[in-house]
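From the methods appendix. Each design record in this collection lists the tokenized structure first, followed by the designed amino acid sequence. Records were kept in a plain field format so they could be parsed without special tools. The example shown here is representative of the layout used throughout.

RECORD:
FOLD TOKENS (81 positions):
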């Protein structure tokens, strides 16, 4: 098991060293990772907001508390405008 973990660590370490040798792509990848994380956070907050659930349940009570159904319904509502 320790051999596998060491090999895995060395694999990632080599990739990190290669990425560090090219400065601008490394910076751009870091910015992209932060942007993706922020986008995921805000979409999750949007889907899980009590105001959105209350508004969508008022329009369509069959949705229940399923966040995927709520997000799909919100998307349908956005597309209808």
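DESIGN:
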């Amino acid at each position: 098991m320790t051999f596998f973990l060491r090999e895995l660590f060395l694999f990632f370490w080599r990739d990190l060293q290669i990425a560090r040798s090219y400065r601008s792509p490394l910076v751009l990848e870091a910015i992209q990772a932060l942007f993706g994380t922020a986008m995921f956070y805000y979409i999750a907050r949007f889907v899980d907001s009590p105001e959105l659930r209350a508004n969508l349940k008022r329009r369509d009570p069959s949705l229940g508390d399923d966040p995927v159904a709520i997000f799909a319904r919100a998307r349908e509502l956005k597309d209808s405008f």
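APPENDIX NOTE: Residues 54 and 61 are 9 Å apart (CA to CA).
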